[in-house]
Amino acid sequence: MAKVHVTTSINGEPMEFLCEPSDTMLDALRGPLALTGSKEGCASGDCGACSITVDDRLVCSCLMLAVESEGHEIRTIEGLAQGEKLHPLQQKFLEMAALQCGICTSGMLVASDALLKKNPDPSEEEVRFWLAGNLCRCTGYDKIVRAVMETAAEMRAQ
After folding, report:
1. Residue 3 banded pLDDT, cuts 50, 70, 90
2. Which UniProt keywords apply (predicted)?
3. For a designed S-S bond to 92, which of 13, 139, 147, 152 qualifies (C-beta 3.0 to 4.6 A apart)?
4. Amino acid 24: pLDDT
């Protein structure tokens, strides 16, 4: 089968790549685009480790075909940091030890950022609901939820 040419924007940069029609966005990110921050945890959309945003909508990249990115704005974990400076969520996750093995971390951060863009003052219940699609076997979620809540408070105070 012939490869498909895709033109899109990833982390604010125009991108072009070739992919098989059956390649997932996760395949394209981790393969030809060499953006390996999104992790494959389940390949069925159940764990959230591969979370990205597509036009500011949270998506599991393992469930999206790469060809579907044509003309859209994709944001990955690599687009979260601002140059050499960590995003406030990344900093707070580090400060509060809201990560352990790292498999879920990129998805948790992307999902948390998407939440705070949509609702800069979420309740704990809203944070837990929003992150329900992201599975973590190591942390027990409490530190993650607290890190998101504290980041939200600090960002509002700025």
Report:
1. very high
2. 2Fe-2S, Iron, Iron-sulfur, Metal-binding, Oxidoreductase
3. 147
4. 98
Answer yes or no: do 94 and 127 share one domain.
yes
Q: Output the pTM of the full model.
A: 0.95
155, two tokens: 């960002």
Q: What is the CATH number of the domain that holds 53?
A: 3.10.20.30
CA distance 155 to 119: 12
Q: What is the CATH number of the domain that holds 145?
A: 1.10.150.120
Within 8 A by CB and 6+ apart from 122, the residues are 115, 116, 130, 148, 149, 152
Strands 4-10 and 51-54: unpaired
My answer on whether 14 and 68 are in the same domain is: yes
| Digit-coded pLDDT (tens) for 31-55 | 999 999 999 999 999 999 999 999 9
Question: Given a cut of 80, is residue 20 above it in pLDDT?
Answer: yes
Q: Within this chain, do residues 121 and 150 fall inside the same structural domain, yes or no?
A: yes
